[in-house]
Specification:
The protein has helices at 16-28, 30-33, 57-68, 90-100, 113-120, 136-150, 168-179, 196-205, 215-218, 238-244, 286-306; strands at residues 46-51, 72-76, 103-108, 125-130, 157-161, 183-187, 208-211, 224-227, 263-265. It is an alpha/beta fold. The chain folds into two domains: 11-134 and 293-306, Rossmann fold, CATH 3.40.50.1370; 136-289, 3-Layer(aba) Sandwich (Rossmann fold). The strands form two sheets. It has a five-stranded parallel sheet, covered by helices on one side. Strands 2-1-3-4 form a four-stranded parallel sheet, with helices on both faces. The longest helix is centred in the last third of the chain and has 21 residues, at 286-306.
Length: 315
């Protein structure tokens, strides 16, 4: 079992043992991610971060992960400042990047863009989010957060709340949680319910899935609430967005009687779905979740580029 040279486009590209391998490596890399232990494991490597859609945490955590391991990066952060503004195709851009870098991290507004890139590139491609499609590395850090909190991923009861239709983080996470036998409760506006193809996937896996639009009822007995932003940028019709905007918001009062280890998670950015007063709650783990992006992506980069993790990083 090796991830060396592999593309990571979807959580379907990873088996349960491979997911656990990445999480084990990431735990051991936390001191490197925090700057307490140096590593030059990827010295001499060059990564291309090609972001054709706005990003803060994903881009910066990939860049941090690379630099903590001694790699360098070349970056596209503004499509208007690249040759795509002149009409260059994504295909040509990917071919060019694969000439320059050892690995391509791609974020693109079009679903399926990363799969196209992987077909064209002779270097590994990591999907950093493709429209309303998939976001596998976000799911890996989400799983790392849950595992750190509960010391297991098996059998957790997880509520997925908000935009389940366009929320690519949810599409990837639901599949992964199904692999680990989680019980999923879906809580969303009807217009933003989980896509049928994702439901079919969960059904084929034998995952236990229920729908409960009433958040208070959905949270009964839950271990995790995974909140997603209702994404204005995914709506072609702003009138449709206005109908659901602000319809799902976490009331801090709902957290008073939750389990001690109950966790509120969010891939961020948030708008109004989690009010700032929740930040003080011991249940809020979304900023820890954001930090764990660094060791998780460090582990993934190292395993793909070298087939191993840095010394002291497990195995």
């Amino acid at each position: 079992m090796s991830l060396k040279g592999r593309d990571i486009l979807s959580m379907r590209d990873l088996s349960r043992p491979e997911i656990l391998e990445i999480l084990k490596a990431s735990r051991a890399l936390i001191p490197v991610a925090e700057g307490r232990r140096p590593s030059r494991a990827l010295e001499g490597r060059l990564l291309s971060l090609a972001f054709f859609e706005p990003s803060t945490r994903t881009r910066l955590s990939f860049e941090t992960a690379a630099k903590r391991l001694g790699a360098r990066t070349i970056t596209i952060v503004d499509p208007a400042a690249s040759s795509m503004a002149k009409g260059e195709s994504l295909s040509d851009t990917v071919r060019m990047l694969s000439c320059y870098a050892d690995l391509i991290v791609l974020r693109h507004p079009n679903e399926g863009a990363s799969r196209l890139a992987a077909q064209l590139s002779d270097k590994p491609v990591i999907n950093a989010g493709d429209g309303a499609g998939q976001h596998p590395t976000q799911t890996l850090l989400d799983l790392a957060t849950m595992e750190e909190r509960f010391q297991t991923l098996a059998g957790l009861r997880v509520v997925l709340m908000g935009d389940l239709r366009y929320g690519r983080t949810v599409h990837s996470l639901a599949h992964a949680l199904g692999l680990f036998g989680s019980e999923l409760t879906l809580s969303s506006p009807e217009r933003l319910s989980l896509p049928e193809e994702v439901r079919r996937d969960l059904d084929q896996m034998g995952a236990k899935v229920t729908e409960q639009p009433d958040l208070e009822k959905a949270l009964r007995g839950a271990d995790v609430l995974y909140v997603t932003r209702i994404q204005k940028e995914r709506f072609g019709d702003l009138a449709e967005y206005a109908k659901v905007s602000g319809s799902y918001r976490l009331d801090p009062a709902l957290l008073r009687n939750m389990k001690e280890k109950f966790a509120v998670m969010h891939p961020l950015p948030r708008v109004a779905e989690i009010p700032p007063e929740v930040d003080r709650s011991p249940h809020a783990v979304y900023f820890r979740q954001a930090f764990l992006a660094v060791p998780v992506r460090m582990a993934l980069l190292s395993l793909i580029l070298t087939g191993r993790v840095p010394p002291g990083g497990g195995r």
